[in-house]
């Protein structure tokens, strides 16, 4: 049987190679206010789609760009973000990534997050652990927000009335420090390998986080919603942390900000 994880990593690396090839020579348009898409996004997605469907022609495919959705009711569906961190990419900030995940019955079974700028490929297979360039990784042991480096994500457009503002203020006053990288996939990969201790976001899409959630789970982390419920990968709201104790404190901070 063809190795699904091997194909997943191959697809992510192919997408990343396309992104590097397009740096500095793409056109940009807006999908919505402050929501950019480039020719590179589209080219990367096509390369990924061609790779996975050439190996698994009966699988479904859900990609962020161009509304691409093939066989969404198939037993296995690939969920892909060909360029997570488009604004960074447009500004030639190296914090962008490719995210590729394979889902069966709503559960991610393999995933890869590839950072082409650093040539770092984070991979995971359910029940088999998580790796960075083939070496095992694990989450940190931090149990308190006061000692935690926390990654955050906001919507593309945030105004003064956004519920994300009081949530940010609640967490920034409790955490040791906050970072906003602009890439949900890299935030989750960072938690998986111990570079971040926690990550929260309330406005992600499936392709942003599918692969990264599996990375954190297989690296030993706690992946729940802000309400402490299991994450629905198709409608993700995240309060992800390295340890259960830290996850509970993070969820509590989210709840207090909303009250």
Can you offer a commentary on this structure?
The relative contact order is 0.14. The protein has 2 domains: 4-136, Fructose-1,6-Bisphosphatase, Chain A, domain 1 (2-Layer Sandwich); 145-258, D-Maltodextrin-Binding Protein, domain 2. The protein has helices spanning 4-22, 39-55, 86-90, 164-172, 184-193, 206-218, 244-258, and strands at 28-32, 35-38, 60-63, 69-70, 76-84, 97-104, 107-115, 120-125, 130-132, 135-136, 149-152, 177-179, 198-201, 222-224, 238-241. Helix 1 (4-22) runs antiparallel to helix 2, helix 4 (164-172) packs across helix 7 (244-258) and helix 5 (184-193) packs parallel to helix 6. The longest helix has 19 residues, at 4-22. The model has no long low-confidence stretch (mean pLDDT 88). Helix content is 34%, strand content 27%. With 259 residues, the protein is of the alpha+beta class.
